[in-house]
């Protein structure tokens, strides 16, 4: 018995075939390209289908027991009623409709004044309507839904996770009544089901199950599905996900929550800081060599706030935030280490913010994402956080979707406990860089970013 997980990423489509004990039987990947024009970021949905067909052909050694799909949170397109695309895919970070946020907040201030972010899908849907697309004749389809429909041969429901940034009310489990004030017909929006629900079957009879967004998929791959266990995904940017029994309410709007498939909530947030800034600050540098040098040299008396673009989303919301450095960075090694320390400090600040909202104290943190290849960075994060960090054996969102598919929509936590393995644990060594951290937070406050 084996299950397939698919991950529709920004730069590639990845597939993993895993068995009931969590062993990876096969992997495949195909590249994706997109188009960026200023604040606009689009992809061709047909490219997803071509890549998915290719990776499935490569990993399907025998008839799998199920398939689940994750994709970038907030990526969507419009289709006609038959499911054919009529727009490109508007990507998760496309900011063309930022000015529409105020219109959304005005429609329901109590609901959206702190929870709606300008790059979410809902503002972009309003922008497409303003551009002349009549939603009476079209459907809003998230990227994972579009691929699932391709696999089963008909339009499908979406899941609560992908629906969140389209405005879905996770408390009421319904599309909000405020859509009427925005002129958005409910007929344009898909039925919503819980992750793991069967969406349909392929021509070969394989169940295709509702998935989750990529951050949640990485959390499943890390097995961080109980209160006190957190997953930190560090790639181009930093994303944190955890578990809470009760919904955490954040008056600043930095934290949002998905529904836990087993009940309860998955709170977290996405920062605009991350490893992506290294390629800009150190073009052409051998990052692996710098990581080895940083391990030998240790911490430096400098820290950079490593924003990948102007504006911060988490652990505070500051559209005006800009990159800065405290201390001297006279060479590449200091630049590199200052960035690493800055990301670790933002990570620590994020956990402190979550705990002020009522989240369980951090017991352990699973690290996933491309930046986990930096061994010194992993240890530094353990030191700064002051808790053990775990490195999962298969830190891949596609693997998380294979686990979700294997759960069949019931007892995801138990399924992950059987399938997910920890490869290594790094214990904190005691140096949390408290003085430099205090200076860093004070500078954020001085600039008004946390006001």
From TrEMBL:
Domain Carbohydrate kinase FGGY C-terminal: 233-406
Superkingdom of origin: Bacteria
Domain (Carbohydrate kinase FGGY N-terminal) ranges: 3-215
Pfam families: FGGY_C, FGGY_N
Keyword terms, alphabetized: Kinase, Transferase
Protein's UniProt keywords contain Transferase: yes
Key word Kinase present: yes
UniProt-recorded Gene Ontology molecular function terms: kinase activity
InterPro entries documented for this protein: ATPase_NBD, Carb_kinase_FGGY, FGGY_C, FGGY_Carb_Kinase, FGGY_N
GO biological process, one term: carbohydrate metabolic process
Family annotation (PANTHER family): SUGAR KINASE
Family, as annotated: Belongs to the FGGY kinase family.
This protein's name: Sugar (Pentulose or hexulose) kinase
